[in-house]
Amino acid sequence: MNAPATPGRATPLVEMRDMRKSFGGIHAVNGVTMDLYPGEVVGVLGHNGAGKSVLMKMLSGAYRRDSGEIYINGELAHINSPRDARRYNIETIYQTLALADNLDAASNLFLGRELVNPMGLMNDAAMEAETRKIMSQLNPNFQRFHTPVAGLSGGQRQSVAISRAVYFNARILIMDEPTAALGVEETAMVARLIEQLKAQGIGIFLIDHDIHAVKQLCDRASVMKNGRLVGTVKVDEVTEDDILGMIILGKNPEKGLV
Length: 258
Fold this sequence. Notes:
Layout: E1 14-23, E2 26-36, E3 41-45, H1 52-60, E4 67-72, E5 75-77, H2 82-87, E6 90-93, H3 105-109, H4 124-138, H5 154-167, E7 172-176, H6 184-199, E8 203-207, H7 211-217, E9 220-225, E10 228-234, H8 240-249, E11 251-252, E12 256-257
Parallel strand pairs: 3-8, 3-9, 6-7, 7-8
Antiparallel strand pairs: 1-2, 1-4, 4-5, 9-10, 11-12
Helix pairs in contact: 4-5, 5-6
């Protein structure tokens, strides 16, 4: 079953239609439709409890949706677990990054998917070579290949997490507040990484509370409130106050109150 493409645009990488999820009678996500195109960053915003994380967890397979449809590259997708999501090249980079602090970049990149030699032993040299190759594309300044990731800066740790996803063929990334608690230089590093991903045609859903970061990093912003979609806007056509009004009041700049 195919999803119709938006006129004048390519087929979406992702289209979520009429997504719904309830917990104990509370409608966490209530009839939300949202899409993402190749080489695009869509910010997903809203207060705590707005439903943005629940929606993304349904896409990542962490939660099973009550109803709704997900299309990947125009084809109906069957996503009921994180393993299903990975088969559709969907990866999530959580705010905690899920890195093993005592291991270096290469060991983290291949954690659970280690390369082995013909003797069945871990091939450390091959894993380091592959890590250097992917890092040279995403963060050419990265040099601390033998440092446990606990000793890396926040931006460098993001580099490792993003490289792991990209190396294993992610085409759709869900990023949870990637610049949270980062300084100006580190935030700029993450912005450069995101630009590299966009240039490769990777689509990114970026969950965030920081309107300034969304204006800087995203092409569009989808705002949720009380489980519903307030609206989706092009970030260069609205002000930060417009987005704030959507978050707080549920006020769409074009449609008024929703």
